[in-house]
DNA sequence: CTGAAAGCGCTTACAG
DNA sequence: CTGAAAGCGCTTACAG
C-alpha cells in the first residue's frame, strides 16, 4: 500500500481512514501522504476484505419518466460517494411476480439490500411482505407509509392539503380534482389531502367537480375537458400529477379558457414537465433525487449494522416538500 | 472457492468462466456445480485480481431530462450485466472547465474510461482534445462525428433529411424550421438535413419560415407563434427538438390552428414528451438507452485491450434511428 | 494506540 | 488441457 509512504504500517492508514482512534501525529502523517500521492482507496479491495458487502440492488422501470431519472441520479450519486456498487434490474410495470424474480436475481448477484421504486415497491409490499426480501429494503418515493417496508418519502397527504389550502387562500371555492384510480398507491394521500383541506375550510366538495384519470396527458385532457364543459365550471383544477395537469392546460387552451385568469391549474411531482408548458405549472415538488440518495445511505447503514445488533422494524423518513407556485395559479 | 465443489481446482473454474480452452468433461462438471450452488462470481475479487480495471466514469448533468434518464439507464444496465462499476460526477452545463476537473476526479477514483454526455462532451472535445483524457473516452449521443473522440450516435443529418422528405411526401411545400443557435453541436446536422431534403426536392427554403430558439418549450411557443402569424404561414413546422415542437403545438392551439389539419408538427429525439401532448408528436427517435449500453460495452473492450495492442484512433458507431410518425403529421 | 499475521475470492504467469 | 504458487489492496481479529 502506497500510503505506507508516510512511514507507518498499512494498518494505521486503514485505521485513520476508518476513523479508529489514532494519535494526532499519525493522522497528520497519513493525511499528508494521502494528499501528496493523490491516494484513493481501492473499492474492490475494500469490498473483498470487509465482511460487510456493499452492493445495493435496484428495481427500475426502464422508462424515461423524469421521476425515474431523478431516482437513478440520486442513487448513483450516493453510490459513487459512498463507494457502493449499484446493480440494476429492469422490471415491467404491472408484473409483480417478475419483481420477486428480479429481487432474487439481485440477491444472487450479491446485493445486500434492495431499493424499490415508487408504486411498484408499494404494490409488491402489499402483495408480499418484508420477510420475503430477507435483507434491508427501502421503498423510495412511496406515497404513504408502507406497513411492512421502510420508506423515504414526502408527506403527500400534507402536501395535497397545503396546495388545496393555497388555492382556497387565492379565493377559489369551486376547486376541481383529478384523482387517480383507487388501485394506485398515490391515489389516497393526494385525494384525502384535497378532501381534508376542503372540509377544514368549510368548502363544499361538489361531486361533479371530481374526475378520474390514469396518469397520462390524454386522460388529463379528457377529464379536464369534462370539468370545463360543465355549466358552472371550476375556477381551479388540482390534478394528481403533472402529466394530467398539462392535459388540463391543453383542455383550457382549446376552449380559450385563460389560465390563470379564468382557471388555475395545479399539478403534483413538479417534474421537468412543469416548467416546459405554458403557463409554467404550479406543482408539489418531490425531491426524488435527494430522497434516493438518502435511501442508499440508509440502506448502507442498515447493511453494516446487520452484522451487529438491532434488527429493528421498518422505518419512515419523511423529507420536507416544497410547493412551487408558478404562473398557472397567477403567481 | 465454492465451485471446487466440482472436484476441480479453482483455476479450472476460472478457465471455464473465462472461456479458456478446457475439456468437455471439465466444463460440464463446473457448470453442474455452478448450477447446483447458484454460484455467482464475486466482482470485487475479480476486479482486484485482474490487471484490467473495470471502473467507468460518467459525466452527467444532474437534470431530469428524459434523454439523461435514458443515458443513465442504459449505462447502468450494461454495467450491471458486464460487472463494471459506474462512477458518476455531476457537471454544470456550460462550465467546461469543471468538466475537466470532474474527469480528473474520476480518474483519481480509479475510472479507466470515461463516458461523456451529448453536447457537453462534444463541447469539451472541441475545447480540449482527446489526449487530455489519457484514457478511452466515448461521447454518447453526439450530434455528429467528433474529430478527436469516439462516438456512439445516430446519423442526425440523415434523420433530419428523412423526416423533411416525409413532410414533402405528405404534400407540404411551405415547411418551417426551428433551428438551434449555431453554438450548439446539435444545430448543424439537423439544420443541414432539412436544407438537403428541401434542395433535393426542389422546394424553396423561404427565409421567413426559419426561426431560432434555444431548446425550451417557451422558445418553441414564441418562435412557432411568429411563423403562424405570418400572412402566409407554413403548413408544417419541423422543430429541432421535442420541447420546441410541443411549444409549436401550443402556439397552434392558442391560434386555433388545427393540428394536423392545418399544420403538421415534427420534433426530434422522441422523448417521453412526444407521447404526452396532444396530438401525439411525430419525432425522430434517438435510442439513447441502447446507445449508452453500447458505449459502456465498447469502453470496457477498449480498457481490456489497452494493456495489449492497438491504440487506434477514435471510432464512430452509428446506430439506426427510426422516425415515429404520429398524429401531429396526420399519421 | 499500533502493527504483524492471515485471508477475502479471484486472476496472472507459469510449470507440468 | 490443468493446477500449485503468488499476489491484487484492503480488512478483521488479535497481540503487543
Automatic annotation (TrEMBL), chains A, B:
One Pfam family matching this protein: Peripla_BP_3
InterPro entries for this protein: HTH_LacI, LacI/GalR-like_sensor, Lambda_DNA-bd_dom_sf, Peripla_BP_I
Residue span, HTH lacI-type domain: 1-50
Record's keyword terms, sorted: DNA-binding, Transcription, Transcription regulation
GO terms of molecular function: DNA binding
Superkingdom, taxonomy of origin: Bacteria
Protein name (database record): LacI family DNA-binding transcriptional regulator
Gene source species: Novosphingobium rhizovicinum
Source lineage: Bacteria, Pseudomonadati, Pseudomonadota, Alphaproteobacteria, Sphingomonadales
Amino acid at each position: 500500500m502506497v500510503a505506507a509512504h508516510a512511514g507507518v504500517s498499512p494498518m494505521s492508514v486503514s485505521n485513520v481512514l476508518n476513523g479508529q482512534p489514532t494519535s494526532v501525529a499519525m493522522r497528520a502523517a497519513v493525511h499528508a501522504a494521502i494528499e501528496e500521492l493523490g491516494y484513493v482507496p481501492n473499492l474492490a479491495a475494500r469490498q473483498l476484505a470487509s465482511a460487510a458487502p456493499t452492493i445495493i440492488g435496484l428495481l427500475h422501470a426502464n422508462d424515461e419518466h423524469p421521476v425515474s431519472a431523478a431516482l437513478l441520479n440520486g442513487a448513483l450519486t450516493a453510490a459513487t460517494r459512498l463507494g457502493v456498487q449499484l446493480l440494476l434490474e429492469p422490471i415491467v410495470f404491472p408484473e409483480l411476480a417478475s419483481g420477486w424474480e428480479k429481487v432474487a436475481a439481485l440477491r444472487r448477484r450479491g446485493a445486500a439490500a434492495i431499493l424499490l421504486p415508487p408504486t411498484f415497491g408499494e404494490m409488491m409490499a402489499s402483495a408480499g411482505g418484508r420477510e420475503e426480501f430477507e435483507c434491508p429494503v427501502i421503498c423510495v418515493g412511496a406515497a404513504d407509509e408502507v406497513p411492512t417496508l421502510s420508506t423515504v418519502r414526502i408527506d403527500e397527504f400534507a402536501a395535497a392539503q397545503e396546495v388545496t389550502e393555497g388555492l382556497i387562500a387565492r379565493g377559489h371555492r369551486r376547486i376541481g380534482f383529478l384523482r387517480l384510480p383507487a388501485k394506485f398507491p398515490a391515489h389516497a394521500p393526494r385525494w384525502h389531502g384535497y378532501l381534508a383541506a376542503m372540509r377544514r375550510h368549510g368548502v363544499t366538495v361538489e361531486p361533479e367537480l371530481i374526475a378520474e384519470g390514469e396518469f397520462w396527458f390524454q386522460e388529463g385532457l379528457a377529464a379536464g375537458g369534462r370539468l370545463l364543459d360543465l355549466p358552472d365550471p371550476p375556477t381551479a383544477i388540482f390534478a394528481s400529477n403533472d402529466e394530467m395537469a398539462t392535459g388540463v392546460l391543453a383542455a383550457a387552451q382549446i376552449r380559450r379558457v385563460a389560465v390563470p385568469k379564468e382557471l388555475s391549474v395545479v399539478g403534483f411531482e413538479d417534474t421537468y414537465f412543469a416548467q416546459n408548458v405554458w403557463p409554467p405549472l404550479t406543482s408539489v415538488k418531490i425531491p426524488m433525487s435527494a430522497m434516493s440518495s438518502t435511501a442508499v445511505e440508509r440502506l448502507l447503514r442498515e447493511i453494516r449494522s446487520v452484522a451487529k445488533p438491532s434488527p429493528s422494524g421498518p422505518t419512515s423518513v419523511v423529507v420536507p416538500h416544497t410547493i412551487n407556485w408558478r404562473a398557472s395559479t397567477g403567481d
